[in-house]
């Protein structure tokens, strides 16, 4: 009882205690139990417990200061309905306060109230939700890409579900501000793909911060990075295995067997909290959370046949793959992915760089879309991540080239609401709808033109990137003195 | 019908899924009614490009079309020279990794192989050629990589079934690089420069003492005679030394080297080239660079910025665009060179300059401007008809001519797409 009460108290201290998380964040219950506690709980620290939805490294993110902002006369891609031409968008108190079908829409006037908004004329411009990249290695593979900062792949063992990406992320990675300038407002940072189980992902708001906790998306679920195919084979082939694809499968299954036993043991103990708790195991804890549905498996997998194997394995152990990443052959099993409700996070046109990427086709996204799969663009790359709108434009064009009637409204979803779904955050971000987080991009023109730039990017209603004001642009600590400052014409570093 | 055409037709019948030519290509083709961008001159509204026997014979607004010409209506369309990518591995690499299908790297302990004629490993039947060609790329530099001096590169047309048909110029460049020590144990930059100087000095000595060398009466040399002989055209200024270098100080070293030995140097990569733009312009050293890189990904590229080429052009440097964004732009995504140009425009380069940077400029840099890169009488008829602005994603190449032959490529990707458009797929004939 008391352990529970304490946990709730501590959770309440965090500004962004996830409101909907069940059952309880079991964090830090120092051994200061009152004398009325008769259970052995008082004799062990919180670190000894393996509790669902634990949040021991909580987000400290709070939105940056913002002013109510009204964008008028703008074309809005909401990601949920048809485009609004010559519309208006009001951001207020960190949220989207109103979406106007016209500039004079009474909904805007109603929502305004109080402080007069900053008004931006969006004539000839476009608005989209902030872009979400579900496959990033920013911070764990920062720039410069030097050995000392290479913190993305714990290649000591093919099974490392015990590592958490957030414990590697360097908030001063100069790639973060560049990503923001490309319109990316939310990132899933994953461990690398050298291991069968790579570790936990981190979901970040793309904001300047001194600590990763200051970037963590409040209330976001963790992801679990897993990897199929060539990479684990290559890394461990001569280091004890797995050496083959069948070795990969055996490696996952052996671990799920342990995880299931671990989950049962802990769930039984947590019901009564009587007696000595089972031993806590960081890796199995993560896997048990996947089995409970609290952590979302994000699986690197190129080949269709391997994805099908993994789907059977998920049935064998009773969990659900949230999305296959890279998935260059997903189009071959689009029907299966649609039936299973598994997302596909793909590139527009990467391929051929290794055998398992050989069958990449540009129509992959379009064919998946046609089959009803939740399909999304992803980058896996700090450069590509800055131009995900262009990647979507390529994928859309490839679909149209084979006769599919894909609208820009459809394609916008591939970089906004669908990746939001893959992170189970589609109730908070990914579309322009009243009440959602005001993560918004203002584009100089149609976002699917090669000539279009982001002009302004807001996160939770705060203007964090403004192309017209270089002096206000975020430069990471690393950049000072090293990277030429474009605002001085490059004369100063 | 020339013997070459016959040969190509035979090859087309033999190839299973690469169908490079239409079987009965007309001798004379007139592409009419389009907006023609010759690059060598201003755009021509309602222009005609007349092709005869594989060559361009006339370009203009009032070209007389012979009665027997095959007429191609390009009304409402854009007509440009075939695109040129100045730095690729096309034909040398089939699969990037783990497939033993990479002929771009000479094996050598020292990483110094000027005698490596990479085109001897060129595969005209590479499945990576059709994806590039069907999107309007008709010529590329096919370039070896790795080490201090990687070897010799060829400028090729994406045409034909033999190396002899493909090669426009070989060698078109000698490839070197000055780079970070990184993980591969490359020597310090000072050592790299010293080595390049020693090699060029030896080449100069060799050039003057070939006879003694052949009699075994020469002093000790840093390289084998084949390598020194391969470097003589570089020393004579007949073949440019393409030095891949990013850091401004390394580019300065390359400028100094060009001056000291009186050789033609081209900078490849050049992420920080904008910082020494004036000096590059003064030394008439061209740069191959991209428009999609802005990441300080190493201590040699801290100054990377997307308007690099724009700043270089402003200073008067000749620039050819190469891919430097994400994802395999030297192979599978050579086709994306037109988007590199679009991004360059997004970062301040004029549209005409961007087109020039993927057509005429690379042709000039590598000594083939008399054959390709512009729509001019006498040039190879490498011509692309687009259904819109070629730099835009929504635009498609609706007709691609190489040496006057219309290409009807069906790439491996096209076949896969066709097969899986309906599920479950039919595994019979598509």
Kindly list the characteristics that best describe this protein.
heterodimer, A: 493 residues, alpha/beta, TIM Barrel, 8-stranded mixed beta sheet, 6-stranded mixed beta sheet, 17 strands, 25% helix, globular, disordered N terminus, B: 430 residues, Urease, subunit C, domain 1, 2 domains, 16 strands, 27% helix, 21% strand
Structure, described:
Chain A has 493 residues and is of the alpha/beta class. Chain A has two domains: 2-48, no CATH class; 131-429, Metal-dependent hydrolases (TIM Barrel, Alpha-Beta Barrel). Chain A is built from twelve helices and 17 strands. Chain A has helices spanning 2-13, 106-112, 175-181, 230-236, 245-272, 282-291, 304-317, 334-340, 364-370, 388-401, 408-413, 417-422, and strands at 69-76, 84-92, 95-100, 118-121, 126-129, 131-136, 184-189, 197-200, 202-205, 223-227, 296-301, 323-326, 343-346, 375-377, 440-443, 454-459, 462-466. In chain A, strands 1, 2, 3, 4, 5, 15, 16 and 17 form an eight-stranded mixed beta sheet that branches. The longest helix of chain A is centred in the middle third of the chain and has 28 residues, at 245-272. Chain A is globular. Chain B has 430 residues and is α/β, with parallel strands linked by helices. Chain B folds into two domains: 3-81 and 381-410, Urease, subunit C, domain 1 (Roll); 83-365, TIM Barrel, CATH 3.20.20.140. Chain B contains 13 helices and 16 strands. Chain B has helices at 3-14, 129-133, 163-166, 189-208, 210-214, 225-235, 248-261, 277-282, 308-314, 337-346, 351-356, 360-365, 412-420; strands spanning 28-36, 44-52, 55-60, 70-73, 78-81, 83-88, 137-142, 149-157, 167-177, 241-245, 265-269, 287-289, 319-321, 383-386, 397-402, 405-406. In chain B, the strands form two sheets. In chain B, strands 1, 2, 3, 4, 5, 14, 15 and 16 form an eight-stranded mixed beta sheet that branches. Chain B has an eight-stranded mixed beta sheet with strand order 6-7-8-9-10-11-12-13. In chain B, β6, α2 (129-133) and β7 (137-142) form a beta-alpha-beta unit. Chain B is globular and about 65 Å long. At the A-B interface, α10 of A face α10 and α13 of B.
């Amino acid at each position: 009882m008391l352990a529970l009460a304490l946990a709730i108290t501590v959770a309440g201290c965090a500004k962004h205690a996830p409101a909907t998380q069940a059952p309880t964040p079991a964090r830090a219950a120092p051994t200061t139990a009152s004398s009325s506690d008769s259970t052995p709980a008082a004799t062990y620290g919180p670190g000894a417990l393996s509790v669902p939805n634990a949040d021991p490294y909580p987000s400290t993110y709070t939105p940056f200061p913002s002013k109510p902002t009204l964008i008028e006369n703008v074309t809005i891609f909401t990601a949920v309905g048809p485009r609004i031409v010559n519309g208006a968008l009001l951001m207020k108190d960190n949220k989207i306060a109103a979406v106007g079908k016209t500039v004079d829409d009474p909904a805007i006037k109603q929502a305004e109230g109080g402080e007069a908004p900053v008004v931006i004329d969006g004539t000839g411009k476009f608005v989209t939700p902030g872009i979400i990249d579900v496959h990033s290695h920013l911070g764990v593979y920062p720039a410069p890409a030097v050995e000392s900062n290479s913190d993305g792949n714990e290649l000591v063992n093919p099974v490392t579900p015990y590592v958490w990406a957030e414990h590697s992320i360097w908030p001063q990675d100069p790639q973060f501000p560049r990503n923001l300038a490309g319109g990316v407002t939310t990132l899933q940072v994953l461990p690398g793909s050298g291991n069968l189980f790579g570790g936990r992902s981190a979901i970040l708001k793309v904001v300047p911060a001194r600590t990763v906790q200051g970037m963590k998306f409040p209330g976001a679920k963790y992801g679990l990075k897993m990897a199929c195919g060539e990479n684990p084979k290559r890394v461990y082939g001569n280091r004890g295995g797995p050496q083959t694809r069948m070795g990969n499968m055996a490696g996952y299954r052996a671990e799920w067997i342990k995880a299931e036993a671990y989950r049962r043991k802990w769930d039984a103990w947590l019901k009564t909290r009587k007696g000595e708790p089972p031993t806590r195991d960081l890796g199995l804890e993560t896997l048990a959370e996947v089995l409970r549905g609290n952590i979302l498996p994000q699986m690197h997998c190129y080949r269709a046949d391997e994805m099908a194997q993994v789907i059977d394995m998920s049935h064998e152990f009773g969990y659900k793959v949230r999305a296959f990443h890279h998935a260059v052959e997903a189009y071959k099993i689009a029907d299966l992915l649609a039936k299973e409700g598994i997302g596909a996070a793909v590139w527009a046109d990467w391929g051929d760089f290794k055998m398992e990427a050989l069958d990449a086709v540009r129509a992959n996204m379009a064919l998946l879309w046609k089959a009803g799969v939740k399909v999304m663009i992803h980058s896996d790359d700090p450069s590509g991540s800055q131009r995900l709108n262009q990647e979507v434009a390529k994928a859309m064009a490839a679909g149209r080239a084979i006769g599919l009637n894909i609208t820009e409204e459809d394609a916008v979803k591939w970089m906004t609401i669908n990746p939001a779904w893959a992170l189970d955050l589609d109730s908070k971000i990914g579309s322009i709808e009243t009440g959602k987080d005001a993560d918004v991009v203002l584009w100089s023109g149609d976002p699917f033109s090669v000539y279009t730039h982001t002009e302004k990017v807001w996160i939770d209603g705060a203007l964090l990137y403004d192309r017209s004001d270089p002096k206000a642009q975020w430069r990471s600590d690393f950049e000072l003195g090293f990277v030429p400052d474009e605002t001085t014409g490059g004369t100063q570093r | 019908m020339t013997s070459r055409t016959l040969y190509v037709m035979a090859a087309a019948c033999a190839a299973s899924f690469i169908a490079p030519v239409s079987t009965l290509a007309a001798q004379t083709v007139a592409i009419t009614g389009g907006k023609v961008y010759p690059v060598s001159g201003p755009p021509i509204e309602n222009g005609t490009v007349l092709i005869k026997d594989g060559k361009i014979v006339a370009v203009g607004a009032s070209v007389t079309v012979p009665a027997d010409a095959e007429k191609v209506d390009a009304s409402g369309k854009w007509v440009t020279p075939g695109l040129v990518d100045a730095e690729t591995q096309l034909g040398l690499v089939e699969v990037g990794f783990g497939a033993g299908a990479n002929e771009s790297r000479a094996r050598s302990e020292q990483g110094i192989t000027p005698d490596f004629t990479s085109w001897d490993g060129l595969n005209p039947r590479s499945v990576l050629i059709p994806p590039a060609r069907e999107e309007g790329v008709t010529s590329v530099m096919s370039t070896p990589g790795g080490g201090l001096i990687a070897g010799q590169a060829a400028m090729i047309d994406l045409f034909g079934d033999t190396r002899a048909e493909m090669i426009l110029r070989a060698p078109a460049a000698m490839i070197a690089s000055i780079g970070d020590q990184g993980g591969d144990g490359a020597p310090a930059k000072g050592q790299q420069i010293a080595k390049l100087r020693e090699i060029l000095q030896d080449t100069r000595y060799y050039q003057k003492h070939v006879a003694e060398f052949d009699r075994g009466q020469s002093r000790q040399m840093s390289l084998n005679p084949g390598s020194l002989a391969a470097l003589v055209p570089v020393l004579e200024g007949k073949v440019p030394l393409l030095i891949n270098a990013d850091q401004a100080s390394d580019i300065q070293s390359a400028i100094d080297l060009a001056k000291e030995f009186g050789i033609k140097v081209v900078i490849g990569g050049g992420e920080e080239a904008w910082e020494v733009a004036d000096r590059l312009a003064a030394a008439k050293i061209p740069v191959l660079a991209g428009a999609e890189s802005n990441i300080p990904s190493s201590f040699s590229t801290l100054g990377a910025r997307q308007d690099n080429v724009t700043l270089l052009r402003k200073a008067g440097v000749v620039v050819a665009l190469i891919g430097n964004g994400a994802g395999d732009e030297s192979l599978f995504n050579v086709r994306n060179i037109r988007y590199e140009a679009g991004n360059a425009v997004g970062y301040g380069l004029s549209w005409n300059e961007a087109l020039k940077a993927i057509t005429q400029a690379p042709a000039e840099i590598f000594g083939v401007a008399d054959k390709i890169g512009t729509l001019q009488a006498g040039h190879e008829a490498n011509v692309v008809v687009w259904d819109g602005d070629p730099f835009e994603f929504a635009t498609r190449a609706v007709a691609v001519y190489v040496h006057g032959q219309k290409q009807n490529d069906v790439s491996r990707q096209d076949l896969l797409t066709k097969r899986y458009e309906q599920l479950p797929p039919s595994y019979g004939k598509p």
